[in-house]
Structures are given as C-alpha cells and as structure tokens.
Amino acid sequence: MTDTGKILTEMNDRSREVFRRVVEAYLDTGDPVGSRSLTRSMSEKVSAATIRNVMQDLEFLGLLDSPHVSAGRVPTQAGLRMFVDGLLEVSDLKQDDRQKIDETLGSNTADVGTMLDRIGSALSGVTQGASLVLSPKHEAPIKHIEFVHLGQDRALVVLVFADGHVENRIFSPPPGQTPSSMREAANFLNALAEGRSLSELTTVIREQIDARRQEIDSLAHQLVESGLAVWEGQGGLHERLIVRGRANLLQGSDAEEELERIRTLFDDLERKRDIAEFLELAEEGEGVRIFIGSENKLFSLSGSSLVVSPYMNADRKIIGAVGVIGPTRLNYGRIVPIVDYTAQLVGRMISDRG
After folding, report:
1. Same domain, yes or no: 281 and 326
2. DSSP readout, 280-296?
3. What are phi and psi of 73, to 5 degrees?
4. Is 263 found in the same domain as 124?
5. Digit-coded pLDDT (tens) for 202-260
6. pLDDT tens digit string along 18-75?
7. What CATH number corresponds to the domain at position 28?
8. Could you point out which of 110, 219, 266, 336 has its C-alpha 20 to 30 Å from the C-alpha of 161?
9. Are residues 215 and 286 part of one domain?
C-alpha cells in the first residue's frame, strides 16, 4: 500500500469527508476552499473551528496547502493523487459526449490519419482540454523512398507503401547535403526497401551500413542515418502525435503565474518533447492512467495533468494512445470515461480496417 493509501485508510470519517469536499470544490472552482463554506455541505453539523482543525491536520500530512495569505486550502499534488486513487467517483459517459465522439465516424474516411485527427478535435471539444492522439506506425511493405531537397536545412522524405499509403515527412538533414547525395541515399535505401516494412528496413540498413560503410559516400551515409531517425526515433514519433485544442488551456487563465505555466506547456507541445515516453506511459498497463503534476513525465514543468489510455489492434497489441492534458484541477470523474471510450473506439476502428 502506498503512503497516501495508508493515510486514507487511517483517516476517520470526518477527516475523509473534509478532505474529499475540499478537493471536489477545488476541482470545480479552482479556488481555495474555506472552513466556513464547508460547514454548509458537511453531512454532520460541525463548527467552522472544528473544520479548521481538521484542515490543519491534513495540511500537516502534506495533503492540503494554504496558497499565499488565503484562509482557504487547496489540495497538494500528493492530495490529488490520494483523491484520484482512493476517493474519485467516475461518472458514466454522458450521452451527448458519446454522440459528439461518435459523430467523427460519419465521414467513414479511409484515411486513418484524417480519422484520428477528427477524433482528436472531437476529444478536445468535448473535454475543453488539449487532446493528444498517438497514431499507429504504418507497417505495410515499402514500395519507394525519395528525398527532396527543400533548402539548406530542410528536406522532405516521401515514403510510398505497397498498399498505396503515402507519407511525407519534413526533417533537418546533416549539413552539406546536395541533391546528388540525397539521390545516392535514396538509391541505397530503395535497393533494400521493397517488400520490407519500416521496422524491418531499419534492422537491414544498420547491417548494410556496417557492411558497406566504405562504399557509401560519407555525406550520403549521414543522410541515411538522419532519414532513419525520421521514422524510428523522435522525428517519426513527432509525426505520429496529433495535438488539438491547445487554445482551450488558455480559457479562464488570467493570473500571470498561470499564464506562464501554460506558455511552458505550449512550448512543450510545440516541440513535442520526449514524445517517445507518451506511449511508454500508456503501455505500462491497460486502461486509463492519470499522471498529476511532476508524475507527468511529458509535461512536468507545466504543472499539468495527463489522462491517457492505450488502444489496441485486433491482436490485442498496444499500437497507440489517446489522452487529454489540462490543469491539475481537471474534472477527472468526467474525463476518465471519455478517454476510455475514445481509446476503445479507436481500437475497434483500426481493427475493422485491418
């Protein structure tokens, strides 16, 4: 049992109720909660002085905090964690929320990327947060690869798959690339690529680079390795992450400290830093997971929360994830079933499309 879980089991009924009501009121309003306001909602008639004493005890345990000079209390990160783990009441998915998410299926588009983009937009609209959708890797055999020189520090890789799927990805090539070195790199890749998926090609190319290192022009060699990073390393994962609804995070934020926190979050989202961890977070267990504040490896600097769930293909293999990011005072009870339903929906759709 965790420390917070032990604290919760050792609390008496009054302390547990005060703690729960403080957290619920804070999640609802975002404001510190005072003892006087709680006297009107407690199940038993108790004085404000009694509630203040209980709040002080909860503060001593590290579950509540007193912001600035306010007489009210707000939950700490540890307090929110304990509430989510032990006291959170998850509501049923509302019919109108389900309908808004289901409506994204109306177009019946064959393009998985477009479908996931629409689902991300719907998820953002329903939750009023920023939505994150990590799309699955495309594992069909490759038919053709081409590099296009766009400028001194930009290039395009065009991936044509045997099933007709085409992906265009912009990346930063190593310095000194020329159109001829890019053609040489593309020829090298195409000689190995046909009939292989990207994952298979990655392994083969590494073996070939080691075996033929002396045969490949050094600049083309650098480009091959940079191109690999586009689909295997951070670049590829960046392309797979769909972010929608960032503007929602600014609504109702006027305090300078809060705006700075959100600017940091925007910066994180723009760079999509450490996105490789997004799927790792979801893969640690089935179902919805909640990461609060510094537990949230992706956006720890922004003081935000991430509610995330993986989705699976027909073979029950985790291939992607969907999530919602917002302030730590998210309405977790409502967000959890929305994320859970969306993840299951995406998994079914991907499975149906084979």
Report:
1. yes
2. HHHHTSSS-EEEEGGG-
3. -125, 155
4. yes
5. 777 777 766 666 665 566 666 666 655 444 444 444 446 777 877 777 766 666 766 77
6. 999 999 999 988 888 988 888 888 888 888 899 999 999 999 999 999 887 667 899 9
7. 1.10.10.10
8. 219
9. no
The CATH number of the domain holding residue 265 is: 3.30.450.40
Please give the structure tokens belonging to residue 237: 């994962």
Residue with tokens 């609504």: 251
What distance in Å separates the CA atoms of residue 115 and residue 108, rounded to the nearest whole number?
A: 8
Tokens in use for 171?
Answer: 């990346």
Co-location of 17 and 105 in the same domain: no
Query: Within 10 A of 122 (CB to CB), how many other CB atoms are there?
Result: 22
Is the separation of the CB atoms in 149 and 158 below 8 Å?
no
Q: Which residues of 287-306 are buried (b: 16+ CB within 10 A; e: fewer)?
A: ebbbbbbeebebbeebbbbb
**Tokens 């995330």 — which residue?**
308
Please state the domain count of the chain: 3
Is 295 inside a domain boundary? yes
Residues 6+ apart with CB under 8 A from 343: 288, 309, 310, 311, 321, 322
Domain enclosing residue 345, as ranges? 95-129+245-352
Residue with tokens 């609804």: 245
What's the pTM value of the predicted model, to 2 decimals? 0.71
| Distance between CA atoms of residues 52 and 33, nearest Å | 11
